[in-house]
Amino acid sequence: MMKQIVFNVGGALSTYVEFDNKTLLVDIGKSSEFNPITDFLLPLYKKRSAEKSKNNSSKYHIDQLLISHPHKDHISAIEDFDTHFYPELLTTPNDNDGMQQNELINWEKVGNEDDASIIKLREMLVGRIPPLRATSDQNEFIYYLAPKEVEDNATLTSESYCNNISIVIFLIVNGYRVFFPGDIQKEGMKNIIDKNHYLKNKLKGGVDVLIAPHHGLRSSFSTYLFDNIKDNKTCSINIVSEKVNNPDEAREVDTRYSSADYCKGENNLKGGNGIDKCYQIKTSRGHIVIDYNQKNNPVFSIYSDIKDAINQFLK
């Protein structure tokens, strides 16, 4: 069993997944209009009378919070999360005692060390046990470039040190295959694929749903990623977490994500402009709920009212 929601949080990113009795929250960016913690997760858990954490009885239990990388647009709701939830696993690039030297994050390279979200994240990491782990060895697989390796590579650092230390996730549940590459960029994507033959093999097995890297921006579109995906395209859809168009902000989504050249469009949605198939969804259309419990293809629903999305998780 698996169900997922990709939230409409503007140019930020946050997605929540329930699979095989596991709860996984990947990134917790929020927008001025929507907070995934107070507007979705907390109401959902209250309606379910969900269990509290064994480690902190005042907070709700969640199996894993995975922060792909500590940029503001991926952690801005972290204080709200910490108020109400306690994750059994907190997985993010970090500098905990006991980690290998090349895996320690360089916070100076990340920047914004005085930002409240960064301070809260670092506070929450204290006492956590390394190394970086997944909540389910059978379904969830994580990969990353060692921060020191990125720091020592001029090309990877110039692209963006913080983006290229993104933890990427591959989920395989009920035969469905979902890829979350965080904000990893072109050269970072090539490096992480080439250095992880297990990841390369999973990509060769196919990808049903792709959460487009770095919000689908043209500057981060990786042809190398699609070269390594079975049939060189996703099966079901490409999802882009994107702001509504604003002429004052130059955020250009790569049109190839919406092309039949990069997606088969095997889903229940219809395309626009007379096109029968839909190859891409942008979160600017609404909160995207994905039901992976069907035998053939995942079923997608788009909601402007978060209450409707919550009801889908209560079924």
Strands of the widest sheet, in order across it, are 5-4-3-2-1-12-13
Give the topology string: H per helix, E per strand.
EEEHEHHEHHEHHEEHHEHEEEEH
The CATH class is identified as Alpha Beta
CATH architecture: 4-Layer Sandwich
* CATH homologous superfamily grouping: Ribonuclease Z/Hydroxyacylglutathione hydrolase-like
Low-confidence stretches: none
Indicate the mean pLDDT.
94
Number of DSSP strand runs = 13
What this model shows, in words?
This protein has 315 residues and is α/β, with parallel strands linked by helices. It is 27% helix and 21% strand. It contains 11 helices and 13 strands. The strands form 2 sheets. The chain has a 7-stranded mixed β-sheet. Strand 7 and strand 8 form a beta hairpin. The model has no long low-confidence stretch (mean pLDDT 94).
Q: Briefly, what is this?
A:
The chain is an alpha/beta fold. Helices cover 27% and strands 21% of the residues. It has one domain (2-314): Metallo-beta-lactamase, Chain A (4-Layer Sandwich).
Outline the fold blueprint.
Layout: E1 2-6, E2 14-19, E3 22-28, H1 37-48, E4 60-66, H2 72-75, H3 78-84, E5 85-91, H4 107-110, H5 116-125, E6 140-143, H6 147-151, H7 154-164, E7 168-173, E8 176-180, H8 186-195, H9 197-204, E9 209-211, H10 223-228, E10 237-240, E11 280-282, E12 287-291, E13 299-303, H11 306-314
Parallel strand pairs: 3-4, 4-5, 8-9, 9-10, 10-11
Antiparallel strand pairs: 1-2, 1-12, 2-3, 6-7, 7-8, 12-13
